[in-house]
Design goal:
By secondary structure, the chain is α/β, with parallel strands linked by helices. It contains 14 helices and 18 strands. Helix 4 runs parallel beside helix 11 and helix 12 (about 330-355) packs parallel to helix 14 (about 420-440).
C-alpha cells in the first residue's frame, strides 16, 4: 500500500483521532504530513503498521528501544513482574537492582533517583542544582533540547529574526506559555564556541547554578561537542562553584559507561531516560553523593520534593534491568560497529550519486542531510535546513516509507541490537534509491 492513501486505515485513524485529540495525537515528534503511519505490532527491528505494511524501524521510539521490539528477556521480566504487581505504594527490590546497574556504570553517578521521563528528570536536576548552589541561573546550549520544562525551553529553535548575536544568543522562548519571569534565570550559550561561551558563563558567575550539556546534541542531527568545549565547561563550572549537568537521555547509549565515559568528563549531575527503561516510561537523575544528598529525606527536613505515584514503578524497573543486563560492552561494540557501517554506506551513497550533503552521528545514532556541510553549531545547522536539507529530508522520509524503512524525519536513523549488516545494507540501498529519485527531480510529495 502506497503512502499517502486516503483510504488507508492509518488515514482513517488520523481523521478519527483529530476528533478527540488536539492535532490528532499526544506527541508532536511523531507527526508528519499528511498523516502519521499508525503502528500495529513490532518484532525485532521491524514494525508493521495497521495496513499490514512492514518496515525496518530506524526510529526505535526516539532511541528508547535499543533492543528493538519484543526482546525476549525484557518480555520475560515484564511477564514475571506483571504477575506479581503492576504498581505499588511501596519500594521494591527491582528499583535497587536498576539503581545498582546504573551507579556501577556511570562515573559521575554515586546515587540515583527515578522519575517517569527525561523531562521530569531534567526538572529535578535543575531544582537540585539550584538547591545545592543557592543560585537560580541555568545555562544551556543554543539549539539543544532538554525536555519540556520551562527553564530549559529557551534558545531551542530560534531564527535570525530573534536569535541575537552569535556570541551572545538571546534566550528566545521555544513556544507560547512559558512565563516571562523564567527567562531571567535562563542563560543561552553558543555551541562549540569556547571563547564566547566561557565569557557568557563567567559574566553570570554570581547567579550560575548549573550548565546543561548533551555531548551529542540530538536536535542538531547528533553533532558532537568538541573536546575543548567540554573541557572548558567542566573547568569553568568548577571555577565558579556551579554544577555540570550531562543530559544523557540520548547519548547514554554510545558507550558502556555512557557519554561521560566516552568523553572522559565526570559531571556533577546526570540526567537519563529512554534506553534505561527497556521500552517502558522512565527518567532518572543521578550524581555525586554530596549533590544527591539533597534528595535524602531520611536524615533531616525535606530539601527537595521528589515523589510521584509512578516513580520507580516496578514494571519500568524490571524492563530497564533486563535491557541493561543485555547491553554489555560486547553488545555495544557490535551495535556501534553497525553505526560505523551505516555511516560509511550513507557517505558512499552521497559520493556515488554526486549529492551535496553530509552524514553525522556517533555510535548507533546517525543522521543524513541532503544539503550543506557539517555544522559546528545551531546556526550552522539552521543554515543547512534552510539550504534544502529539510525539504529533501522530508521527501526522502516519504520515499523510505514506501520502500520498507522508517526514519526520524528529516534524517535521523537510530539502530537497535536485533539489526544485522543485511538490515543496514537494505537501509543504505533504499536511501540511495531515494537520493537518486530526488536528484533526478522525480515527484516525491511531502505535503
Amino acid at each position: 500500500m502506497a503512502f499517502p492513501d486516503d483510504d488507508s486505515r492509518s488515514a482513517r485513524l488520523a481523521a478519527r483521532a483529530s476528533r478527540s485529540l488536539p492535532g490528532g495525537n499526544s506527541r508532536h515528534s511523531v507527526l508528519y504530513p499528511p498523516y502519521p503511519v499508525y503502528a500495529a505490532r513490532g518484532e525485532g527491528c521491524r514494525l508493521t503498521d495497521v495496513d499490514g505494511v512492514t518496515r525496518i524501524d530506524a526510529v526505535n521510539n526516539m532511541s528508547s528501544l535499543i533492543h528493538g521490539h519484543g526482546n525476549a528477556a525484557v518480555l520475560q521480566a515484564l511477564g514475571e513482574q506483571i504477575s506479581a504487581m503492576l504498581s505499588v505504594g511501596a519500594p521494591t527490590e527491582v528499583e535497587i537492582e536498576l539503581a545498582e546497574i546504573l551507579t556501577g556504570r556511570l562515573p559521575g553517578v554515586d546515587l540515583i533517583r527515578f522519575a517517569n521521563s527525561g523531562s521530569e528528570a531534567m526538572m529535578f536536576a535543575c531544582r537540585c542544582a539550584r538547591g545545592f548552589t543557592s543560585r537560580s541561573g541555568i545555562a544551556k546550549v543554543e539549539g539543544a533540547y532538554h525536555g519540556s520544562y520551562d527553564s530549559v525551553e529557551f534558545g531551542l529553535s530560534p531564527d535570525p529574526s530573534s536569535w541575537g548575536a552569535s556570541d551572545a544568543p538571546a534566550p528566545v522562548p521555544a513556544t507560547n506559555g512559558i512565563p516571562a519571569g523564567v527567562q531571567q534565570d535562563t542563560i543561552v550559550i553558543p555551541f562549540n564556541d569556547v571563547e564566547a561561551a566561557e565569557a557568557i558563563l563567567r559574566a553570570h558567575a554570581d547567579s550560575l547554578a548549573a550548565v546543561i550539556i548533551d555531548p551529542v546534541v540530538s536536535r542538531m542531527g547528533f553533532i558532537e561537542a568538541s573536546p575543548a568545549y567540554l573541557d572548558m565547561i567542566r573547568s569553568v563550572t568548577r571555577d565558579l562553584d556551579a554544577l555540570l549537568i550531562f543530559d544523557e537521555v540520548f547519548s547514554f547509549r554510545i558507550g558502556y559507561h555512557g557519554a561521560q565515559g566516552e568523553v572522559g568528563i565526570k559531571p556533577d549531575i546526570t540526567v537519563l531516560g529512554k534506553v534505561i527503561g527497556g521500552g517502558m516510561p522512565i527518567g532518572a537523575v543521578g550524581g555525586s553523593a554530596e549533590v544527591m544528598a539533597l534528595f535524602d529525606h531520611s536524615a533531616g527536613p525535606l530539601a527537595i520534593e521528589h515523589s510521584g505515584t509512578f516513580f520507580a514503578n516496578p514494571m519500568s524497573m524490571a524492563a530497564g534491568s533486563a535491557a541493561l543486563e543485555q547491553l554489555t560492552p560486547e553488545a555495544l561494540e557490535r551495535l556501534n560497529g553497525l553505526g560505523d557501517y551505516l555511516r560509511a554506506g550513507l557517505r558512499r551513497a552521497l559520493d556515488e550519486t554526486g549529492t551535496d550533503g553530509y552524514v553525522a552521528g556517533v555510535g548507533s545514532l546517525s543522521a543524513l542531510f541532503l544539503a550543506g556541510e557539517p555544522p559546528a553549531d545551531y546556526r550552522g545547522f539552521f543554515g543547512v535546513m534552510q539550504a534544502g536539507a529539510l525539504e529533501r529530508g522530508m521527501a526522502l522520509h516519504r520515499f523510505l516509507l514506501n520502500n520498507g524503512v522508517q526514519i526520524i524525519p528529516p534524517g535521523g536513523i537510530v539502530l537497535s541490537t536485533p539489526m544485522t549488516r543485511s538490515d543496514i545494507d537494505e537501509i543504505v540501498e533504499q536511501v540511495t534509491a531515494g537520493i537518486i529519485r530526488i536528484r533526478d527531480g522525480a515527484a516525491v510529495q511531502t505535503a
